[in-house]
Amino acid sequence: MSSEERYVFVIEWFDQAASLIRKYNLTYFTVDNTIDMFDIKNRRIFLKRCQYPGLSVSELFIGATVTIYSRQLKVIDYADVFTRQKFETQRSKTFGMIKPDCYNNIGKIIDIIYSKGLRITNLKMIKMTLTNARQFYAEHTGKPFFEDLTNFMSSDVVVGMELVAENAVPKWRELMGPTNPITAKTDSPNTLRAIFGTQGTHNAVHGSDSATSASRELNFFFSLPNSPAVLNNCTCCIIKPHAIYQAGKIINMILEEGFEISAMMMVHLDKPTAEEFFEVYKGVLPEFTAMVDHMTSGPCIAMEIRQENVVNAFRQVSGPLDPEVAKHLRSNTIRAAFGIDRVQNAVHCTDLPEDGVLECEYFFRILSGR
Ligand code: ADP
Ligand code: MG
């Protein structure tokens, strides 16, 4: 046996045909970026060692969903001590939140997060109640700024994010900068609080102060039910998996065009869900199967978008379905800027005015269990 470095994970795949969960060991060989898969129950090689350029080591962490040959696999555990030690010390999670004063800068902040090498593995917009805010900031109960802080945090929507990186907690706090935005502007002018904060409580972003707080805050935030979706006069936009690292730029474009984003969630669609959501395109769009495969290949961000006559207005900003056509005819559209081909065309947007509410309900009521 060589001393070649390898990471081994336990992964699960829900085999729909057989209606059972199959477990494998997935090995990632860092020397040549190859993988293999071993069927744990039947004790045999399931996938021979091969190159799989679609999968990078940064996508492997507990809780991740990765797609290998159209199968959606969930990473559930480390399979050996070496992998556990390597990953638990290197990769960690924190909770980040964009505060109500930064609604207009949501896109810019998400873009900075990606550009600094943090990954967003979950994201949700909510409007906290005052009670939520008081619980979230319980450690500050009784301090002079507590009432202001909790009123402010429940005054409008916030975007909460699970952020993953090496040393995620200090990394995100460093990017945020000092608590007081005035101090930040003089001492650390390149930080988020310096750029986007204004004064005192209005300091643009939140970040956990330790791994323990991160775990408490992630659990707290992502179990809050209150999606701010309005479910009228709305259209549904989904940022597709290939464009997820451009999500900040796309969101910024939508806001700068004057649309309101009234709800937002990151979601990893499975095949039955994607097939159900896109059912009307079955037999109509030649790329239907390819589209479902793509939509399930990684996380998407679904949004409820509002304005006058929003479905048609938003289609104008999205641009023609085919990014090639968009680039020639409508170069200032989302698909012209971020699309690759007819399947990977950056965003889905509702086609017909009467479907806007239905599509938003699908994500913000049915999938969110509201
Ligand atoms: P941080 O958010 O940097 O972890 P704290 O946990 O101390 O800072 O405070 C929580 C939040 O309370 C801050 O982000 C800020 O919005 C608000 N806050 C803290 N101290 C003050 C203060 N002296 N005056 C006004 N608001 C404050
Ligand atoms: Mg704090």
From TrEMBL:
<dbReference type="Pfam" id="PF25364">
    <property type="entry name" value="PH_NDK7_N"/>
</dbReference>
<feature type="active site" description="Pros-phosphohistidine intermediate">
    <location>
        <position position="206"/>
    </location>
</feature>
<keyword id="KW-0963">Cytoplasm</keyword>
<dbReference type="InterPro" id="IPR037993">
    <property type="entry name" value="NDPk7B"/>
</dbReference>
<feature type="binding site">
    <location>
        <position position="193"/>
    </location>
    <ligand>
        <name>ATP</name>
    </ligand>
</feature>
<dbReference type="InterPro" id="IPR036850">
    <property type="entry name" value="NDK-like_dom_sf"/>
</dbReference>
<dbReference type="GO" id="GO:0006241">
    <property type="term" value="P:CTP biosynthetic process"/>
</dbReference>
<keyword id="KW-0966">Cell projection</keyword>
<feature type="domain" description="DM10">
    <location>
        <begin position="3"/>
        <end position="91"/>
    </location>
</feature>
<keyword id="KW-0206">Cytoskeleton</keyword>
<dbReference type="GO" id="GO:0006183">
    <property type="term" value="P:GTP biosynthetic process"/>
</dbReference>
<dbReference type="InterPro" id="IPR011410">
    <property type="entry name" value="NDPK7"/>
</dbReference>
<dbReference type="InterPro" id="IPR034907">
    <property type="entry name" value="NDK-like_dom"/>
</dbReference>
<dbReference type="GO" id="GO:0005879">
    <property type="term" value="C:axonemal microtubule"/>
</dbReference>
<dbReference type="GO" id="GO:0006228">
    <property type="term" value="P:UTP biosynthetic process"/>
</dbReference>
<dbReference type="GO" id="GO:0005524">
    <property type="term" value="F:ATP binding"/>
</dbReference>
<feature type="active site" description="Pros-phosphohistidine intermediate">
    <location>
        <position position="348"/>
    </location>
</feature>
<comment type="similarity">
    <text>Belongs to the NDK family.</text>
</comment>
<feature type="binding site">
    <location>
        <position position="173"/>
    </location>
    <ligand>
        <name>ATP</name>
    </ligand>
</feature>
<dbReference type="Pfam" id="PF00334">
    <property type="entry name" value="NDK"/>
</dbReference>
<protein>
    <recommendedName>
        <fullName>DM10 domain-containing protein</fullName>
    </recommendedName>
</protein>
<dbReference type="InterPro" id="IPR006602">
    <property type="entry name" value="DM10_dom"/>
</dbReference>
<feature type="binding site">
    <location>
        <position position="99"/>
    </location>
    <ligand>
        <name>ATP</name>
    </ligand>
</feature>
<keyword id="KW-0547">Nucleotide-binding</keyword>
<feature type="binding site">
    <location>
        <position position="179"/>
    </location>
    <ligand>
        <name>ATP</name>
    </ligand>
</feature>
<dbReference type="InterPro" id="IPR001564">
    <property type="entry name" value="Nucleoside_diP_kinase"/>
</dbReference>
<feature type="binding site">
    <location>
        <position position="145"/>
    </location>
    <ligand>
        <name>ATP</name>
    </ligand>
</feature>
<dbReference type="GO" id="GO:0004550">
    <property type="term" value="F:nucleoside diphosphate kinase activity"/>
</dbReference>
<dbReference type="InterPro" id="IPR057579">
    <property type="entry name" value="DM10_NDK7"/>
</dbReference>
<keyword id="KW-0067">ATP-binding</keyword>
<feature type="binding site">
    <location>
        <position position="203"/>
    </location>
    <ligand>
        <name>ATP</name>
    </ligand>
</feature>
